[in-house]
Structures are given as C-alpha cells and as structure tokens.
Amino acid sequence: MPRILIVEDDVATAGEIASALTDHGHVTQICGNGREGLLAAAAESFDVLVIDRMLPGGMDGLTIVTTLRAMGNTVPVLVLSALSAVDERVRGLKAGGDDYLTKPFEFLELTARIDALLRRRTDSARQTVLRAGDLELDLLTQKVQRAGQPIELLPREYRLLEYMLRHAGQVVTRTMIFEEVWHYHYDQPSNVIDVHVSKLRRKIEPGDALPLIRTVRGAGYMLRAPD
C-alpha cells in the first residue's frame, strides 16, 4: 500500500486527512511541524508527501520541499495552503512541489490528486535500465556494466545496487537498506550493511574508476554520478 507522509500542524486537519487517505487504502504518518517532517521524509521512504505551506517552528512547507530537492529526493509533493493567489501557487511549484491544493478543499479532490501523483511516479518507475553516470543496471536481463564492461554481482549485491540506483542522489540509511534489501527490521548494531557496501564498491569502482558510493557520516550512504 502507498505510504503517505502528512506534515500538518493543525491536529484536527491532519487527522481528517489521515482518515480520508486510510479509507482510500493508503498508509499514513503524521508530523506536526516542519523539522519533524523533513527528518521523516529524508530518513524514510514515502510514495507521496502532503505538506502544509504554513508550519510553526521556523521551517515552513516550502523550505522542506526545497531542502529535499537539494538532497536529490524526488518524492512527489502535494502542497496544501490557505494562500490561493496565483503568485503563491507558482512559488509552491517553483520550490519543487508537484501539485498545489488550496484550503478549504474536498477530500475527494485530495485523494484524486494523490492518485494522480502516484500514477505519475509509477509510470516513471517503469524504466527498464537504471543509470548513474557510466554505470548501468538492466532490470530485464539483470546485467550490470560500467563503461561498457560487464560486472558480475551476487544476488544480494545486485539487489543492494538496484535499491541504491532507484534512490540515486538520496541518502539511504542502514535501516532503510536492511528493511528493503534484507526485508528484516534493523534494530541493533551490525556491520553487515557496511560489509556488503564495501564489497559492492570494489566491484563497481574498479581500479582508477571514479567513486559512485559515498558514505554520509552518521546517516548512511548515497550513490550518485561523479560531478
């Protein structure tokens, strides 16, 4: 089921949105201020973010969006706002929002807009080749190559690389990797992720090849094409 993060400081409104989306078949999580919302969006995997434009705590909705986009996070964002002027809607979209819905709104329209964002993301996910610079992973043949040279990967290494390529440019935590690649809950210190990432690095970054996987201290890893 699609996971939706709701960043809304009004408790009643957040609850109503969550209830409507749950009834529509989605899994929801609520954050009551901008900082909590940014941390959740950066650390976990969501299918759509629903973010209120005006938030307390020194970080408004547009700041969350621009920060996520600067991190390479491409998750679809629906901005909610009581500001209905054209200039405000344009600001929301230019900040990196994918859609803009003014308050008050009908929940039927809210769910329809989220469905549209989910369809758009699904269509983009249907690509058959994942790339980062000169590294390619073919989802149909399950072949991996860099600069035209084939790379042999073990099944777990392949799944790890596929996951990191699907989130290229984003920080992925050890918890995210363990749950998505190993399908277990990561709740205790372990170096299993680091060991597998190290092995994968040696295979996709041979010799003097430019590095693709970067360790983000205190957070996890990021795979991105060299600048």
Could you explain how this protein is built, in words?
It contains eight helices and twelve strands. It is elongated and about 55 Å long. It is an alpha/beta fold and 227 residues long. A five-stranded parallel sheet has the order 2-1-3-4-5, with helices on both faces. Strands 6-7-8-9 form a four-stranded antiparallel sheet, covered by helices on one side. β11 and β12 form a beta hairpin. It has helices spanning 11-23, 34-43, 61-70, 86-94, 107-124, 155-166, 174-182, 192-204, and strands spanning 3-7, 27-31, 48-52, 77-81, 99-102, 129-132, 135-138, 144-146, 149-151, 172-173, 213-216, 220-223.
User: Runs with pLDDT <50, length 5+?
Assistant: none
Strand order of the largest sheet: 2-1-3-4-5
- Could you give a short account of the major beta sheet? 5 strands, parallel
What is the SS-derived class? Answer: alpha/beta
Order of helices and strands: EHEHEHEHEHEEEEHEHHEE
Structure summary, number of beta strands:
12
Intertermini distance: 36 Å
Rg from alpha-carbon coordinates? 19 Å
Strand fraction equals 15-25%
What would the average pLDDT be, to the nearest integer?
88
- Residues in helix, %: 40-55%
Counting DSSP H or I runs of 4 or more residues, the number of helices is 8
Q: What spatial form do the alpha-carbon principal axes imply?
A: elongated
